[in-house]
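Here is one chain, start to finish.
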Amino acid sequence: MDVLKGQKPVGKRVAIIGAGAIGFDIAEYLTHQGESTALNIDAWLQEWGIDKTLKSRAGIEGKKAVSHPSPREVFMFKRSKGKFGGNLGKTTGWIHRATLKKKKVQFIGEVSYTKIDDQGLHYTQNEEHKILEADTIVICAGQIPHRVLYEPLLAAGKKVHVIGGADVAAELDAKRAINQGSRLAAIL
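Its structure:
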């Protein structure tokens, strides 16, 4: 939250601990600068090499795609085995992975973290101790439920229902949260 709210400065060489949805969102945020191409259709089409005139085969001008370099060198870490972003949405996960690859984010998996100090992030991978010199380390792991309004609302005599990430923050799951919200709405 400190990064997104601009409360902490972020350097040019960044390590992100955690490769879940929040880690991917932070990586995308940190590898972009200026106006998002999602807000400018022509820029977005150009970034992805899409020919809106449809003169190119299948409307794809792949070789003419324009990639905007990242303002930072970003490294994403995870402890588990398997594909980075494997738990992202089936219909959108691919675009998050592709976007970060275009920004040259480096994915480092199957690690255990040793410590963080002035040298950077100390970690072990394949029984080898390594240090990533980074000027910023962002931790996107170990979420806890945010229930700051729960007690005050109860104290005010309000009927309160806790769902989604406020209920269980581990492995945040939009499908679970939507399911909980829909079921609660049907009952109310």
